[in-house]
Design a protein that fits this description.
The protein has about 375 residues and is of the alpha/beta class. It contains eleven helices and 19 strands. It has helices at about 1-15, 20-30, 95-100, 115-120, 120-125, 160-170, 195-205, 215, 220-225, 240-255, 305-310; strands at about 40-50, 55-60, 70-80, 80-90, 105-110, 130-135, 150-155, 180-185, 205-210, 235-240, 260-265, 280-285, 290-295, 325-330, 335, 340-345, 350, 355-360, 360-365. Helix 1 (about 1-15) packs across helix 2 and helix 6 (about 160-170) packs parallel to helix 7. The structure holds FE2/S2 (inorganic) cluster (FES). FE2/S2 (inorganic) cluster binds near residues 322 and 352.
Length: about 375
């Protein structure tokens, strides 16, 4: 009976029905990177790839269960005493991990990002502590065992899971028939150019086509048709920025590929699709922090993103509505839950910041 009551009390505090979450918030006060289901990984090196992109080379602890080519992980780091988490694809292959015990995350440093430019200098920020916390591998966007030919469409840093898959094909001497179409904004934005072309050459069954927007124009139906004439016979894998995924999905459908043969994955939350009659802007007030910011709903953002862009660091976990760690008290205003499509009322109540969008002026107790 006592255990049941304690569990109910802990549940009401943590908003999550798992034992680990009862203790995580307390342990995170002492060590922000703590997570009961996390694993330690040593940052072995940071390797520059392009002027604004780098690879983090990690050595996960022996307890880490490994991964499939194409999967991603969540990393948790301590930045200025706060816990910060992000999701990244593993850009190296399981075969490479089996050989070396190392994995790589290849990351584009976002110009105004709070984390990615900082991570590029991780070893300087943390000369005494080169460890971060990582999750088990996540996601079903993985190299398929099917013998069916495949078309991989990558946009920008969406090349990372495909680099993992291609490296896996090469290290296992696979004969899989693959055509990789890799879209970049400019010629100097191509990640792993030599490696991709060399792998294709040595495998023989893989074709790599690199297209840059400046020279070839943005992804189009014509590109797909002319670069991959047998597209309707292939399974299609797409990874890249959210608008590019939407565009590629509509083109491949028009070109006769059944939806069941198309695979794609969003990292973190899916794009926010607001109803047409949504307010064009709203005012968000963070009461405790005495901050106010105007949100433009032409480019919809979750209230978690709005808070972070305002310089706040609310507790968050999955950033996709699963873990409930971002639950926050709303004092007033209407929000849309983008996962369920349900609107809140205008009074006070609890909301999940990562999946809530302000419909009108909103006041939060943050
Ligand atoms: S961060 Fe996990 S539900 Fe919001």
């Amino acid at each position: 009976m006592t255990i049941v009551l304690a569990r109910k009390w802990a549940q009401s505090l943590t908003k999550i029905d798992s034992l680990q979450a009862y203790f995580d918030p307390f342990l995170q006060l002492a060590w922000p990177m703590w997570r009961a289901d996390g694993f330690r990984a040593e940052v072995v090196a940071v390797r520059a790839e392009l002027t604004d992109a780098y690879s983090l080379v990690l050595k996960p602890s022996k307890r880490w269960p490994g991964f499939k080519a194409g999967q991603h992980i969540e990393i948790i780091v301590e930045k200025n005493g706060s816990r910060v988490n992000r999701f990244f694809s593993i850009s190296s292959s399981p075969a490479y991990y089996a050989k070396t015990g190392l994995i790589e995350l290849s990351i584009k440093a976002q110009q105004k990002g709070r984390v990615t430019p900082w991570l590029a200098n991780y070893k300087n920020h943390n000369s005494f502590n080169n460890f971060i916390s990582i999750s088990a591998a996540l996601g079903s966007f993985t190299l398929s065992a099917s013998a069916q030919p495949q078309l991989w469409i990558a946009g920008g840093s969406g090349i990372t899971p495909f680099r993992s898959m291609l490296q896996q094909l090469k290290l296992t001497s696979s004969k899989k028939d693959v055509h990789l179409l890799y879209y970049v904004q400019a010629e100097d934005q191509v990640l792993f150019q030599n490696e991709l072309l060399e792998s294709a050459k040595s495998l023989g069954s893989v074709t790599v086509t690199i297209l840059n927007d400046q020279q070839h124009g943005y992804l189009s139906r014509k590109h797909l048709q002319s670069n991959c004439e047998d597209i309707q016979d292939r399974q299609v894998y797409i990874c890249g920025p959210k608008p590019m995924i939407a565009l590629a999905r509509s083109y491949v459908r028009e070109l006769g590929v059944d939806d069941s043969q198309v695979y794609f994955e969003y990292f973190g939350a899916a794009p926010i699709d607001l109803p047409r009659d949504f307010a064009s802007s709203s005012l968000v007030t963070f009461q405790r922090s005495a901050l106010m910011t105007e949100v433009n709903n032409e480019e919809p953002k979750s209230l978690l993103e709005v808070a972070e862009e305002s310089g706040l660091s609310p507790i968050s976990g999955c950033r996709m509505g699963v873990c409930h760690q971002c639950v926050c008290q709303k004092t007033s205003g209407k929000v849309l839950n983008t996962l369920t499509g349900v609107y809140s009322d205008t009074g006070s109540g609890e909301i999940q910041l990562c999946i809530s969008v302000a419909c009108d002026d909103v006041v939060l107790e943050l």
